[in-house]
């Protein structure tokens, strides 16, 4: 069975041009405040829900949901939580560190 999300490198992310992207940082608010990807929305892992992501998507047509954290582990957990929906999920390998 294939994974409900894709694990990509930072290089692969840079080459993901033809898709609208929504960056979701799943780290704690304190971590997010200290260093973040420009344009990323903070939805901490312990609070993330499909409903939150649906609000972010709004009327966008199947955007890439780019999940970010410090090293990649929390982003993978978030992807598992969100995998019940048909989101276009990507986890950045190695995270933001």
Brief description of this entry?
By secondary structure, this protein is α/β, with parallel strands linked by helices. The protein contains 4 helices and 5 strands, in the order βαβαβαβαβ.
Provide the descriptors you would attach to this structure in a database record.
alpha/beta; 4 helices; five-stranded parallel beta sheet
Furnish the topology, listing elements before pairings.
Layout: E1 5-8, H1 10-14, E2 21-25, H2 29-34, E3 41-42, H3 50-57, E4 64-68, H4 73-82, E5 88-92
Parallel strand pairs: 1-5, 2-3, 2-4, 4-5
Overview of this structure, please?
This protein is of the alpha/beta class. The chain has 4 helices and 5 strands. A 5-stranded parallel beta sheet has the order 1-5-4-2-3. Strand 2, helix 2 (29-34) and strand 3 form a beta-alpha-beta unit. The longest helix has 10 residues, at 73-82. It is globular. The protein starts with a strand and ends in a 5-residue tail after the last strand. The mean pLDDT is 90.
């Amino acid at each position: 069975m294939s994974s409900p999300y894709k694990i990509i490198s930072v290089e692969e992310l840079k080459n993901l041009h033809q898709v609208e992207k929504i960056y979701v940082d799943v780290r704690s608010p304190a971590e997010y405040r200290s260093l973040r990807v420009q344009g990323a929305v903070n939805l901490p892992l312990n609070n993330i829900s499909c409903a939150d992501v649906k609000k972010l998507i709004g009327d966008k047509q199947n955007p890439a949901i780019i999940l970010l954290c410090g090293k990649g582990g929390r982003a993978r957990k978030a992807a598992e939580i969100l995998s019940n929906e048909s989101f276009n999920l990507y986890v950045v390998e190695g995270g933001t560190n």
